[in-house]
Amino acid sequence: MKESEVNNRVLQTLSMFDEIGDIDSTADWSQSLMNKINTVKPQSASGLPKIRFVVATLLILLINVGFVLNTMLNSSKKNTTHKSELQLISKELLVNPEQ
Amino acid sequence: MEADLLHKLKLGDKAAFAQLVALYSKRVLNTCYRFLLDKQDAEDVSQEVFIEVFQSINTFKGDAKLSTWIYRITVTKCLDELKKRNRKKRITSIGKILHIDEVANWLTGGAMPDKSLHEDDKMREIAKALNTLPDNQRIAFTLSKIDGYNNAEIAEIMNTTLNAVESLISRAKQKVSAELELILKNKS
To answer: What domain count does chain A have?
Structure first.
């Protein structure tokens, strides 16, 4: 196909997009839309912030519980016996506690 | 008048909704038609637009005009539908390559998307060329081809400047022409 012929067809095809006719809504379309509308409920404007508030509260609660549990676990790990404390002090003083 | 209609809509008044549909249905329907190039799909998607409008009218804060908000929903729904089509087409192509048409049919939920999509060759060529455009160019170009949308309104819908819209339309025209040229050359 020649270059000019291609250009011509490009222009023709593009003009076809411009010439697409309008369509109108039919009575059936309107009726079916109203039927669908009757089955759905509008979202309440206040519903969304409420959900957000609950989610945020739950998140804060979860973080707090995690923090408390983490502290409890760490503190139980740090529980030392009298002997281990003595060993630690003696190591620092370079004294053998067994002697 | 718009404020009154909006107030009634927020109260869930069905008569006000019918009034809204009567006011905007033609433009919404034809916007969908230009984007999707299929009458049946345009009718389905435009119904989805109005259902979305009805459901989320209480979240409309009035920052933009009601009409702009509705057309924004329309454009978003159309782009979603186009993306859905492209996904279906990809799955269908894999099925065809592997000769498992039944599976492809099942995966795409029944009918093949191409069946009633484009009525003639030229429309298919336009659709193919438009598919290569980035979303913002496609929106600007398509809206500019619909009666009643001027560049200022397109800028409002796309939440951008008039200069940006002009540039998007001009780049889209160039790209569509180049793509069409390529498609036509490959065909011959």
So the answer is: 1
